[in-house]
Amino acid sequence: MPAVIDPGPKATTSLESRGSPLVSTETQRRTLSALDLSRCAGSGDFDARLGAPLAPGAIEIFQINVGRLCNMTCRHCHVDAGPDRVRENMDRATIDACLRALDRTSAGTVDVTGGAPELNPHFRYLVDECVRRGKRVMDRCNLTVLLLPRCADLPGWFAERGVEVVCSLPHYRRLNTDAQRGSGTYEQSLEALGRLNRAGYGQGDPRRVLTLVSNPAGAYLGGDQHSLEAEWKASLAREHGVSFDRLIVINNMPIARFLEWLIETDNLQDYMERLVNAFNPATLPGLMCRNTLSIGWDGRIYDCDFNQMLDLESRYSDGERPHIRDFDLELLANREIVTGRHCFGCTAGAGSSCGGAIA
Ligand code: SF4
Ligand code: SF4
Description:
Blueprint: H1 15-18, H2 25-34, H3 46-50, E1 61-65, H4 92-103, E2 109-113, H5 123-132, E3 136-141, H6 154-161, E4 164-168, H7 174-181, H8 185-198, E5 210-214, H9 225-240, E6 246-249, H10 256-264, H11 268-277, E7 292-295, E8 301-302, H12 305-309, H13 329-333, H14 344-347
Parallel strand pairs: 1-2, 1-7, 2-3, 3-4, 4-5, 5-6
Antiparallel strand pairs: 7-8
């Protein structure tokens, strides 16, 4: 049986605050590369499984990670976010550079993420500017942040602007959620869901879309998104009287704090073998790195949020690394996507992306 995260009174603290060796993304990458996966199909060589380098398509989703500041410190966090990450927050000049770059793409969706993106002082400005441009805006929300006094008006504020709220909730059961996020999180999340419902979210209104994001509470793959959605809807309505529109299920990435947990519990080898052996070629056309550009808090550009957290920047064909202030759509279109062993997290089973299952 794959291991599950033990429920505890507190989630954890950031790797950064503890001075963990895994603060070094090079150490994280080396840890994954050093695993002996020779017993697995393709020996755990992601590029060999691809056959040819991944090429990007048109940018449909402009994902802006506005920082690593968060009111929570979840066990599985691939961002290593937390209340102590005050330094890594996107400033207004970088947000304006993002908006200028956005205007040069045909991206219809802006995906605002963090940390808890709502804690960035320029968050509302960014959302307003994207809405003004007619973009579909998604806010990646951890739910509990909506209970902070400074964010208490956000459900109504989002509703006025038609912002899609994409909320992480590991499970519809208290035990699984509190195990990853800290005790009391489940109650707070339900309170926040109720507030979103009262603002019109989660009732089937296309301008008030409420999406929940689930991830496994342990070293196993996410379940079937479609059947789980029905189960979640029924349980949350019956037990708590709250509703949502859709569920997306993602795999945990073997990076940052989830990597730490895998190492500490001696699950890393098994989990990587599980990911590698579940490689599904049908996921390749739908990988989010093919239609998404991910911008970091300091304006550096990545092929996806996971590469961002491993400091694997996008590269032009001449090896140069792009920055949002010098945004060049043509050079980006001709790049190859940077890949590594962590990519098996996206191609395992039904696949996994910021939009949920792929295949
Ligand atoms: S998983 Fe989300 S809510 Fe939890 S610490 Fe990371 S960014 Fe914050
Ligand atoms: S981690 Fe996933 S989305 Fe990112 S480059 Fe690898 S396959 Fe693409």
